[in-house]
Backbone:
């Protein structure tokens, strides 16, 4: 079967020895290349207090990318709504949509995207804010719909078409996206355990809405492509090191590749990486194509959103170029 559309999730990685400014320049360079290669969608994600991620101010990063591109659909993968007042997000994305009509969309997540201490620094009432996520989503929708008699209006934002997505890594987001009739993006690239059940719930319970008349699922996926399997496997070790450090509670900047890295890990850590590897394709173009086709056939995903944490920017570009040749040639 043909592959579904392939999109890009960019976490604006800050590599060891570089700066956030370098990461943001690299993100723009990747977006411009992606546009030429035929990609349709490019998202950035909100994370805070993360030494290796430069996209904390997500709407600002999107403005940077939108100003340097012309056709890509740009969005958040996602904005962590418990960190923000819905009105502020409506105004920010209304501003983006006013500047770049038809190119901006808004993915919303329920998690804070950071550790507990930083979450309190952002909103200071984390438990209540997370519990209010469904009502916050509806409030945000109303700012864009701008019903008659609305006392508080988002300017810009009111009356603009800014598509909303629900993101998730558990069953909660699947249920909410189905209830609201919104497209659903599942974070299978780092949390695949609940993927199958989440897909089943979303598809079975979906209720059509003004925005969407049938379920639409986009799944996160890791791709590290290179000219040979061995080279891709080595490049992938940067991402694996970063993932393990995060799980150990010691996040840092993206490290260079390290031969034999997996051999240094405990059995528990090796099993953890094996689970994440279910949603990963690492290798030459033929290997990546085979893995992607099998994943698409298994999940029947409407779209696959790919992320790649590769230390060398040129190698990262090459990985996405090879993927484009697979997906769009």
Residues:
């Amino acid at each position: 079967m043909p592959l579904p559309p392939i999109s890009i999730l960019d976490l604006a990685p800050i590599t060891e020895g570089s700066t956030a400014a370098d990461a943001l320049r690299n993100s723009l360079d990747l977006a411009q290349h992606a546009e030429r290669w035929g990609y349709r969608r490019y998202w950035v994600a909100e994370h805070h207090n993360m030494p290796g991620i430069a996209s904390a101010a997500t709407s600002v990063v999107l403005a940077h990318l939108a100003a340097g591109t012309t056709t890509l659909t740009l969005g958040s993968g996602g904005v962590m709504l418990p960190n923000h007042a819905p009105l502020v997000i409506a105004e920010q994305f209304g501003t983006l949509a006013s500047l770049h009509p038809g190119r901006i969309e808004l993915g919303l997540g329920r998690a804070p995207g950071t550790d507990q201490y930083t979450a309190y620094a952002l909103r200071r009432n984390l438990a209540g804010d997370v519990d209010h996520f469904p009502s916050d989503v509806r409030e945000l929708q109303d700012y864009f719909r701008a019903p008659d008699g609305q006392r508080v209006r988002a300017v810009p934002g009111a009356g603009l078409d800014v598509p909303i997505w629900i993101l998730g890594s558990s069953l909660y987001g699947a249920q909410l996206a189905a209830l609201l009739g919104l497209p659903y993006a599942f974070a299978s690239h780092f949390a695949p355990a609940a993927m199958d059940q989440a897909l089943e719930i979303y598809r079975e319970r979906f209720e059509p809405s003004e925005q969407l008349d049938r379920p639409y699922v986009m799944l996160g996926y890791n791709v590290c492509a290179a000219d040979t399997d061995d080279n891709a496997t080595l490049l992938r070790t940067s991402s694996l090191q970063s993932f393990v450090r995060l799980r150990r509670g010691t996040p840092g900047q993206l490290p260079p590749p390290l031969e034999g890295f997996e051999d240094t890990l405990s059995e528990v850590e090796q099993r953890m990486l094996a689970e994440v590897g279910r949603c990963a394709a690492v290798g030459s173009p033929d290997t990546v194509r085979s893995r992607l086709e099998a994943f698409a056939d298994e999940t029947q995903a409407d779209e696959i959103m790919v992320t790649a944490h590769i230390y060398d920017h040129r190698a990262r570009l090459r990985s996405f170029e090879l993927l484009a040749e697979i997906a769009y040639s």
